[in-house]
Amino acid sequence: xxxxxxxxxxxxxxxxxxxxxxxxxxxxxxxxxxxxxxxxxxxxxxxxxxxxxxxxxxxxxxxxxxxxxxxxxxxxxxxxxxxxxxxxxxxxxxxxxxxxxxxxxxxxxxxxxxxxxxxxxxxxxxxxxxxxxxxxxxxxxxxxxxxxxxxxxxxxxxxxxxxxxxxxxxxxxxxxxxxxxxxxxxxxxxxxxxxxxxxxxxxxxxxxxxxxxxxxxxxxxxxxxxxxxxxxxxxxxxxxxxxxxxxxxxxxxxxxxxxxxxxxxxxxxxxxxxxxxxxxxxxxxxxxxxxxxxxxxxxxxxxxxxxxxxxxxxxxxxxxxxxxxxxxxxxxxxxxxxxxxxxxxxxxxxxxxxxxxxxxxxxxxxxxxxxxxxxxxxxxxxxxxxxxxxxxxxxxxxxxxxxxxxxxxxxxxxxxxxxxxxxxxxxxxxxxxxxxxxxxxxxxxxxxxxxxxxxxxxxxxxxxxxxxxxxxxxxxxxxxxxxxxxxxxxxxxxxxxxxxxxxxxxxxxxxxxxxxxxxxxxxxxxxxxxxxxxxxxxxxxxxxxxxxxxxxxxxxxxxxxxxxxxxxxxxxxxxxxxxxxxxxxxxxxxxxxxxxxxxxxxxxxxxxxxxxxxxxxxxxxxxxxxxxxxxxxxxxxxxxxxxxxxxxxxxxxxxxxxxxxxxxxxxxxxxxxxxxxxxxxxxxxxxxxxxxxxxxxxxxxxxxxxxxxxxxxxxxxxxxxxxxxxxxxxxxxxxxxxxxxxxxxxxxxxxxxxxxxxxxxxxxxxxxxxxxxxxxxxxxxxxxxxxxxxxxxxxxxxxxxxxxxxxxxxxxxxxxxxxxxxxxxxxxxxxxxxxxxxxxxxxxxxxxxxxxxxxxxxxxxxxxxxxxxxxxxxxxxxxxxxxxxxxxxxxxxxxxxxxxxxxxxxxxxxxxxxxxxxxxxxxxxxxxxxxxxxxxxxxxxxxxxxxxxxxxxxxxxxx
Length: 959
Ligand SMILES: NC(=O)c1ccc[n+]([C@@H]2O[C@H](COP(=O)([O-])OP(=O)(O)OC[C@H]3O[C@@H](n4cnc5c(N)ncnc54)[C@H](OP(=O)(O)O)[C@@H]3O)[C@@H](O)[C@H]2O)c1
Known about the structure:
The protein is 30% helix and 26% strand. By secondary structure, it is α/β, with parallel strands linked by helices. It has 5 domains: 12-71; 95-319, NAD(P)-binding Rossmann-like Domain (Rossmann fold); 334-622, 3-Layer(aba) Sandwich (Rossmann fold), CATH 3.40.50; 638-786, Hotdog Thioesterase (Thiol Ester Dehydrase, Chain A, Roll), CATH 3.10.129.10; 800-953, Roll (Thiol Ester Dehydrase, Chain A). β7, α6 and β8 form a beta-alpha-beta unit. The protein is elongated and about 120 Å long. The protein starts with 11 loop residues before the first helix and ends in an 11-residue tail after the last strand. Bound molecules: NADP nicotinamide-adenine-dinucleotide phosphate. The site of NADP nicotinamide-adenine-dinucleotide phosphate (NAP) has 28 residues, from α9, β14 and β17.
């Protein structure tokens, strides 16, 4: 019946792990109401197991959570939606994705393509350590022959990714070998190369795309469906699949598109498209380990970004509208539109022209179809007239054929030339009708020279690109030809480069606006569409990158299938969509999404879709982020304000607020200097700062007065990397100009599989707020009256420097806010110490937050380092008088009277007012400025003894 933490020394993290283990072993359901603090002893644990297994209610004082039916972590996330509510715009963003622990046991040979940084070889060695066999494939563009080499005992095949014979040769060499897994690291070769340095047509795309397609095509069948196997592709853009950075090569993404699609073709395999933070590339051993840990350790999402600090990211889509005012095009605009003569792109461009009435803007439309002049007069023809003409065409074809016959296919193909031409005339006419100009150029978008000539011949700078040209030819990898793969990829990828070179030839180095028509198949992958998804994934990432450079506003719109117009209306695609539960898009809805993107500030990656049925394997759609009052949204967006509020989870204005922050040593380096035995502990004073920030957000017309009823409970420890915590803030009462907000710091309890089964509460406090008024004197008067009566520490010389203190304390330079001991004060009943207190900018190291390392300022509300100086000073008293090291457990009351001047030298006094049997000591604290005026005070600071001080560190001050 001993207390697990207090008496047995089993800390809460370990307790949570034990409970997770118990849950597994006894097959207990996930229980969201489980509170660890309610189960302090093993007896409580036993009673809980009995209860959750349906046994008799024990007679102990165990809390009695209601058993919940088992829910998956997905179900418990209130933001996930399975959207059946029609088609709309979605913005693609990243979201933390811890993954689900699930070890993979593979046998056979692992094939790894070379990355050029040594990661592939390091990975091969790790595979061997697992008892697997490993070979490497070195892809090199434009080599004549494939070859086999021995590199330090490793078999390496060299091949040109664009030559199918080379890939077939590798497959032949590996004949009879069972493949356990394949990892395509060749895209990493592009991590240090720019797309603009690429050859034309692109050879980079072959490295990222063709080589991977070839390996899967030739060797995919050697991965037995009845055995565990995996495939993974690795890129290095920004560690977030391009959603953040502006300096990466988006061509790498072709590999991710293929992996995502292959995941649909081979659901029996574990498939992962990893994007490494660029710093990993320089550390091959670490990179290889992270890749292995991810692929062999975690199940779940395919597309994952790996951050340098251990975080994993998935891409999700938020229901979000564009909000800028519409800015119609003007006479200065010239847009180059591939695929703009017909199909959904034409419909979209007509929409933009219609929203820019009489603007005199120019649209240069591109397509391969040649115009047949006669069709210009067919614009107003009825269906019957067209039918008649089609029949007449059949007669002419029969007449011209030697056999005197014509097949349906020949007839339809011939007729399509006329209808395409008529479509183009219809588009030109519709645009002209809006008071804008349109011209059609019969040119292949991949013909870079022709496009450059077009650009320079216009005599006007091209201000916009819309890349709508695209081909689609669905076939599973095993059945898809290399030539089809190449064509589908290049129309989009090389086409984009050629369009850009037309812009350059027309004058500017980038257009002001760019839009690529991409697809949900690129975002999520789709069976049969490895090529299409590869190309669209590249364009998606490139549009995000261009926007991040701020030189061009670029958006990729990943469309679902459009109804009535375009490629999805052909063949049986509509039936396939219906069977898979994929909602299609009405033309008018698609057009209005495009018009809004183009004219109302759309950017980065967007989706235009509704329910995606089976395509949305990992429930990637989210409700719109919470709509916050404008002032609150602006305050949070300012990086210097409220650094402990990553996002607002819920808000009842003026009443309740729940905020969330992910604490990490990368974003919060102060944690490194508040670590015990290497484990960062989130300092109590920073928890108070978090409380202050959330309270001030909830009550924006107030300022911070101080705290009451502070209780520091379970410490927040970063045992396994970053940790997400929440602040729950509720207004408790208001009296005159004062408001009290009850705040709690909470985190989730999760088992080893990442399933959340309860929450734990760490710290709690009442935050005291005062209304901002011209005349704060009545408030200040009350506060001064309430200050502890412990006298004012006089100015003096240090008797012990700061190093004396930090010889005894664990705090590193970012947390050393004690400037040295001035003197001992008080008497045997009420001993105390005077010392110096340092503000944040006076610390030995001032970069407490990562943004401060980049020269940004961060404003904190609660003067946490002065409170910390109070803790440390009081701790010194306990250390001296009782011989204990102690930690703060509570504060009865505190006030903050003013923000000191930047250069002010602050003095502090703490006096021990009580010493309890259980080792708790109680202290009052006062910090004063150079004019002796009080800055901050604490009453009833309680410290709890944790350990005896070593004899060598004992000291005694004169009083
Ligand atoms: N329709 C949909 O449901 C849907 C869904 C998702 C994504 N998308 C994307 O939206 C875009 C337009 O699709 P769509 O349905 O309108 O397709 P579409 O009806 O097949 O039209 C494609 C257009 O691109 C042109 N084009 C194709 N290859 C070209 C080349 N090499 N050079 C110049 N022009 C070329 C075609 O004109 P020519 O034949 O005269 O060359 C045609 O105007 C595509 O990029 C597609 O990937 C469409």
